[in-house]
Request: fold
Amino acid sequence: MYAWPASEVPALPGEGRDLQIHDTATQGTITLDPGPVARIYVCGITPYDATHMGHAATYNAFDLVQRVWLDTKRQVHYVQNVTDVDDPLLERAIRDGHDWTELAERETALFREDMPALRMLPPQHYIGAVEAIPGIVPLVERLRDAGAAYELEGDVYFSVEADPHFGEVSNLDAEAMRLLSAERGGDPDRPGKKNPLDPMLWMSAREGEPSWDGGTLGRGRPGWHIECVAIALDHLGMGFDVQGGGSDLTFPHHEMGASHAQALTGEYPFAKAYVHAGMVALNGEKMSKSKGNLVFVSKLRRDGVDPAAIRLALLSHHYRADWEWTDAVLEEAQQRLGRWRAAVSRPDGPSADDLVEEIREALANDLDAPAALLAVDRWAALQESDGGTDEGAPGLVSRAVDALLGVAL
Reply:
């Protein structure tokens, strides 16, 4: 599966900063030291109702991670999946009377249009669940044959007891896990399971639903978590630098994925850091497909909203914060974009060397984009009030804002 075109990232003078970021597993800030090639896996969309502002906020956060690493002159190996077969997708297709493959293809195509408009850097590998099935089946067979998985009425479940580190990503107690499992696609109350939390690895074929050849597993389709594990292990290996996604993926998705991989390989950890973006709300409720309270990037673009303003609206909130999308948030971003563009349009201005370092410092400090925006605001205000004589300053500000924040001025 192809991703989308990459926008050019301008090179900046000086040196970037190593990234300090909040790790969900340790519940503290850690300094990432990836080496010459940084490895990151970000969980992608289930392709229906794309691309809403919650999606955009999540991918904006991990785009910043890439940009900080690129500024340190590292290469970035970025992998993202598309869950192009799953219960929610099939349910939506039936509800709306659409073929599920056409729905997935249409929404994935829309996502591909929105991402470059927002200047999100593409992954090197963009992999659909369906195309990953040939690599998923052997992993499920290995887990079953090793005693880390078991069959139940034709389905195959992972035994969470097979991983001694189970629970170390989310740090939740068993009851909280059970409640979230029921809420987020699990089946903790199914009779016959060894542990209510055990997640499905392979679902045997159901009448009227798509299925694939599973070798010794029989016809069926993969569970949600093993999909990402197969893709990540294939393209990144164990111990990659960042596992990313929205905070609603902490449990069960990232918890289960880590346990699958650790049971498969006998190695620990699956990822060095688990990084999660906050949720975006609308009208007081989390923006979600099930509630239907979604603001779409494509709709805003069709209405003539500059994608750079959308990106600035996202950047005005810390990536880990839960926040609410409002007309006022967008209006403030549009006004900020206008001020910045006016400031860099002049032939000269105040020196911007310190500003570049302020942006770098803010982003290295757990992706503090709001602090970076305020630093640019101060430079723009100084430009408006006093101006300056540095002929290279406006160009440097424009390049820095593009390279580090992904906003084209």
Summary: The mean pLDDT is 96. Residues 204 and 220 are 4 Å apart (CA to CA). The two ends are 31 Å apart (CA to CA).
